[in-house]
Design goal:
The protein is an alpha/beta fold and 499 residues long. The chain is built from 20 helices and 16 strands. The two termini are 45 Å apart.
Length: 499
C-alpha cells in the first residue's frame, strides 16, 4: 500500500516524525521508504551528538567520497568503505556545524588499536590522518551539498586548542581555494544562515569573515559576537554584501562605533528579527540608534544584558516597533541595571503599548525586585496585552501578581513564572482556580532561598482541577514531587510532571 503512494505524499508523512529512531527504523521497511526518508534523516544529521551514531555518519560520508579522495586516504593508510554509498548522502545535508564535524572526525579510529602506548609520533600521525579526512569531506560538501543553507563555526571547545587551530586553519585554506578558483557551484554560495560563536580565535574569525564576504551574498540570518573593532568592521562589510537579511543576532564584546548596526539600514524593510546582546546604548553613535529605529517591520526584538535602555533617544525609538510579535528583555547580570540605577520602564511601556494588538510572546527577566517601577510594567501587561498574549515569561513576581495575570491573560498557552515568595497549599488551590482554559505548559520556579511547602493531598487536588489542555508542568527544584504524584498526574490527566 505504501509503495502506491507518490514519493511527495510519503515524504510529507515522514516530515511529521520527530524522533530520529523512528526515522531510522523507516529506512529498513523497503527501498521505496528508504529513498523517501533518507533525505529527511540526513538533513540535520551532523547536529546529533552521539559517539556511536557519529562514527556511522563519518563512515557513510567516507563512502560518498569521490574515487580521487578515497585513493588519497588509502595511500595514507586510512581505510575507506569499498562499496559506494547507496545514496549521495552529502547532497542531503542542510546544516554544517563545523565543530561537530571536527569532533566526529577526531573520534574515528585511524591508528592500529594494538598500539596501546601512544608515543608523540603516533599521536602526530593520528592528527595528520584526521586532518586529511576532514579536508576531503569538506571539499566534497562544498562541491555536492546543494541543499546546504546553514553554517555554524567556532562554538565548541571540546577539542584541545592546538588541535582546533590546525582544523580551523584547514577550513580557511579550503575556503581560500574555493575563492581562488571562482567556483560558481560552491555550495557556500547558497548559505542562508551563518553563526560564529564568541569562542572564536581572533585570527580565524577575521579570515573566515573575509572569505564569506567574497563567497556569500544571500545570507538571511546571522548570529555573531564581535570581540574587537577589527572583526566587527569586517563583519559590517559582510553585512553590506548581503541582499536580503531577515534575522540579525549581534553581541558586542567591546565598545566602538559599530558598523554592523549602521549597516542594518540596508535591510530596514526586510529585517524581521533583531537580537542585541551586551550593547551599551549610551555609547552608540546617533546614526546607529537611528538605523535601529528604521526597522519598523520587526516581528521579534530581543535585548539581552543591554544597558542604558532608559536614555531619551532610545525611549523615542521604542515607539517605532508596532508590529512586534515577540519581545524578550533579559538582564541576567543584575549589576548591569544596578550600575545604571535605572530600570528601562518607559522603553518597555512603549513596547507593550504600541505592540499590544500583535504581541503574543513576552519574556521579561529583570533579575531583581529592587526597582519600584516593576509593578507598573505588570499593570501594563494586564491593561495592554493581556488578551493577545500566548507565551509569557516573568521573573521575580509575587503570588498575587501571578494570579492577576493568569486571570486576565485568558489565551495563554505557555507560562514561565519565577516567584519570590514561598509556595504552599493555598497557592496551589488558587492556582487551580486561575489557570487559563487553553494553557498547555506551566513552569514555576522560586527565587533563591525560597521553598515549596505543600502536601500531596493539595497537589493531587490541583492535578484533578487542571484543564485538559495542560500537558506539561514543571515545578523547578521542588523536592515534594514523589514518583507517586508523577504517576498520578500521568495516568489521571496525561500530564508530564518535572521537578
Amino acid at each position: 500500500m505504501s509503495s502506491e503512494l507518490p514519493p511527495e505524499s510519503l515524504q510529507g508523512v515522514f516530515e511529521y516524525l520527530q524522533d530520529i529512531k523512528d526515522l531510522f527504523s523507516c529506512l529498513f521497511v523497503n527501498r521505496f521508504w528508504c529513498k523517501s526518508v533518507a533525505p529527511i534523516l540526513w538533513r540535520n544529521t551532523l547536529t546529533i551528538i552521539d559517539s556511536k551514531f557519529s562514527e556511522n555518519v563519518m563512515t557513510t560520508l567516507k563512502a560518498c567520497l569521490p574515487e580521487s579522495s578515497k585513493s588519497l586516504l588509502q595511500w595514507n593508510s586510512i581505510s575507506c568503505p569499498k562499496a559506494q554509498a547507496t545514496f549521495d548522502y552529502a547532497s542531503f545535508l542542510q546544516q554544517l556545524p563545523f565543530d561537530n564535524l571536527v569532533e566526529f572526525t577526531c573520534r574515528l579510529p585511524v591508528i592500529d588499536g594494538s598500539l596501546i602506548h601512544y608515543t608523540p609520533n603516533v599521536l602526530q600521525e593520528s592528527e595528520r590522518r584526521h586532518l586529511l579526512i576532514l579536508q576531503e569531506i569538506l571539499k566534497m560538501l562544498f562541491e555536492r551539498s546543494s541543499n546546504l543553507y546553514e553554517l555554524t563555526v567556532f562554538t565548541s571547545v571540546t577539542a584541545p586548542k592546538a588541535i582546533r587551530e590546525k582544523f580551523y586553519n584547514r577550513l580557511i585554506d579550503i575556503l581560500g581555494h574555493e575563492i581562488s578558483k571562482n567556483n560558481q557551484n560552491c555550495t557556500l554560495l547558497n548559505i542562508r544562515s551563518f553563526n560564529v560563536g564568541r569562542r572564536t580565535l581572533q585570527k580565524h574569525k577575521i579570515q573566515l569573515l573575509a572569505a564569506l564576504t567574497s563567497l556569500c551574498s544571500s545570507i538571511e540570518k546571522v548570529e555573531f559576537s564581535a570581540s574587537s573593532i577589527e572583526d566587527e568592521t569586517i563583519f559590517g562589510q559582510l553585512l553590506m554584501n548581503q541582499n536580503r537579511l531577515k534575522k540579525f543576532e549581534f553581541s558586542l564584546l567591546h565598545q566602538s562605533a559599530p558598523l554592523s548596526l549602521i549597516a542594518l539600514g540596508r535591510f530596514a524593510e526586510t529585517l524581521s528579527r533583531l537580537s542585541l546582546c551586551y550593547i551599551d546604548f549610551e555609547k552608540l553613535p546617533p546614526s546607529a540608534i537611528k538605523t535601529i529605529g528604521l526597522c519598523i517591520q520587526l516581528k521579534e526584538l530581543c535585548l539581552l544584558d543591554c544597558s542604558n535602555l532608559a536614555i531619551s533617544k532610545l525611549i523615542k525609538l521604542s515607539t517605532s516597533f508596532q508590529k512586534l510579535r515577540i519581545f524578550e528583555f533579559k538582564n541576567r547580570y543584575i549589576m548591569n541595571m544596578i550600575h545604571n540605577l535605572i530600570c528601562p520602564t518607559e522603553f518597555i511601556k512603549n513596547i507593550l503599548k504600541y505592540s499590544a494588538s500583535t504581541l503574543h510572546t513576552l519574556q521579561l527577566d529583570w533579575g531583581t525586585r529592587y526597582f519600584p517601577e516593576i509593578h507598573v510594567l505588570l499593570d501594563l501587561i494586564i491593561e495592554n496585552g493581556g488578551e493577545n498574549l500566548q507565551n509569557l515569561q516573568l521573573s521575580e513576581i509575587s503570588k498575587d501578581e501571578a494570579f492577576a495575570i493568569l486571570r486576565i491573560c485568558t489565551n495563554l498557552r505557555k507560562v514561565n513564572f519565577t516567584i519570590y515568595q514561598e509556595l504552599d497549599d493555598e497557592f496551589l488551590y488558587k492556582l487551580a482556580q486561575n489557570i487559563p482554559r487553553n494553557l498547555g505548559s506551566l513552569f514555576i520556579s522560586l527565587s533563591y532561598q525560597n521553598h515549596w511547602i505543600f502536601s500531596n493531598v493539595a497537589f493531587k487536588s490541583y492535578i484533578d482541577s487542571c484543564p485538559k489542555s495542560l500537558k506539561h508542568i514543571n515545578l523547578h527544584r521542588c523536592p515534594h514531587i514523589s514518583q507517586e504524584i508523577k504517576t498520578f498526574a500521568l495516568l489521571k490527566k496525561q500530564i508530564e510532571l518535572d521537578d
